[in-house]
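Example record for the data management plan.
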Amino acid sequence: MENQENYSNLSKLVSKLKNSEDPKRKYEYILWLGKMLKEPDLNILVPENKVKGCVSEVFVKASIHGGKLYWEGYSDALITKGLLAFLINGLNELTPKEVVKVNKKFIEETGLKASLTPSRSNGFLNILLKMQSQANEFL
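Corresponding structural encoding:
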């Protein structure tokens, strides 16, 4: 990841997963992140915040304060909520430009593909793309 400093939260999350050999432990960590995600304001549950291409219901919304993005999100499925929480924790407090420039290669680095079904894996990417699209709107 370029410019480690800016992406330190994301790097920490990726490292935590990368350093675990056990796919079950990775899965449990994602579930735990999902449980830790705070409940969003229900007004984010609108079509323009819905992540398309996800089997479960997923919503994510960015707001900007002092040039940095702050995210909130919701999913009706715990594993997807965990993936959403992973991205929210990793991309919170970045500038719109930093979020847009995130290289999606980090998804491979997590090694989550072994733990996730192809549709969940695809959903993870779709959540990231939605977040990047929203960040782009602030540029």
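Summary line stored alongside the record: The chain has a mean pLDDT of 94.
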